[in-house]
Amino acid sequence: MNVEEFVRSAKEAALIGGQVLRENFRRIGSESVEEKAEKDFVSFVDRTSEERIRAYLSRCFPDHRIVGEEEGGELEGEFVWFVDPLDGTKNYIAGFPIF
Fold first, then answer.
1. For Mg(2+), which residues are the binding ones (predicted)?
2. Is 40 annotated as a binding residue?
3. Per-residue confidence (pLDDT) for residue 87, from 0 to 100
4. Does 38 count as an annotated binding residue?
């Protein structure tokens, strides 16, 4: 494995996750949003995007660990991917295009 392969896969994973964000922007209602902690929200879009990113990276690198903001994960391993599928959930759910 080389750095170029990791970068290519990271870009493709971002596009896959981003597709979920684009398809649902300004289309989700309050029933799709939960408050994880005070002023910290999560939506089905966060979860779905993370699931798709995880699935892609798992296919590409079955021996790598993946830690996601929504699902957590195992930190021990030679290679660990950290996934934050949507940085700026509050802006996203408000329909503000800075996220």
1. 69, 84, 86-87
2. no
3. 92
4. no
Q: Is 57 annotated as a binding residue?
A: no
86 is in an annotated binding site: yes
| Residue 21 confidence (pLDDT) above 80 | yes
Q: Confidence class of residue 49 from pLDDT cuts 50, 70 and 90?
A: very high
Check residue 57 and give its pLDDT: 98
User: What residue ranges define each of the domains in the chain, with the CATH number in brackets?
Assistant: 3-94 (3.30.540.10)
- Across 19-91, the runs of DSSP E, i.e. the strands, are 33-37, 40-43, 65-68, 80-83
The conformation of residue 21, written as its DSSP 8-state character, comes to: H
Q: Give the Cα separation of 34 and 48 in Å (integer).
A: 14
